[in-house]
Amino acid sequence: xxxxxxxxxxxSYRKEMDQTEIPLEDLKKIVQxxxxxxxxxxxxxxGFIIIRNPNVVKAIREMPKANGSMATAAxxxxxxxxxxxxxxxxxxxxxxxxxxxxxxxxxLATTAMGYGTVWIDGWLRKDNRATKIxxxxxxxxxxxxxxxxxxxxxxxxxxxRVKKPFEERVSVV
Length: 173
Ligand SMILES: Cc1cc2nc3c(=O)[nH]c(=O)nc-3n(C[C@H](O)[C@H](O)[C@H](O)COP(=O)(O)O)c2cc1C
Known about the structure:
The chain has 173 residues and is an alpha+beta fold. The protein is built from eight helices and five strands, in the order H-E-H-E-H-H-E-H-H-H-E-E-H. Helix content is 38%, strand content 15%. The strands form two sheets. The chain has a three-stranded antiparallel sheet with strand order 2-3-4, sandwiched between helices. A two-stranded antiparallel ribbon has the order 1-5. The mean pLDDT is 96. The structure holds flavin mononucleotide. The site of flavin mononucleotide has 10 residues, from helix 6.
């Protein structure tokens, strides 16, 4: 799929997913897109967990208030950063931006490969869910999961969200 087609087709899929196991090679290809993303001062502060162990996947699917794609994903990809933000350049930390750049690359790769996903951030930060998933995956204590992507083939139709008109958000000077 052409890059601009993937950008245009990308959307947050929140409905039921096919739970058939996803080939590890596909998941690695998606994560490679995240690794290829830019990062502040090329510090590459992000780390990734491919979650496909059936017991761990089941435990995440069954977490309270997981629904739709979070409750039915075939696999998950978590993006983690240091608990204490890394001062990459002078007193500045780019951890969150690094994470966001990587996640968008992975989102586009996921779309191009015919899988659905949704950028899960707010849900993770509530009720210690990020910590629980970190425990399930054996993540080191000095790292925190900032974003998780449920991955799977989409089983249902879902309308794309409407974006505001170009003119409303863009100025040309
Ligand atoms: C920083 C950020 C945090 C987000 N957190 C969540 C979330 O916790 N749960 C969720 O369902 N969607 C989450 N989303 C997805 C947005 O709701 C979604 O991108 C937005 O509604 C636009 O829809 P689209 O992705 O289909 O274009 C998040 C997106 C971003 C960029």
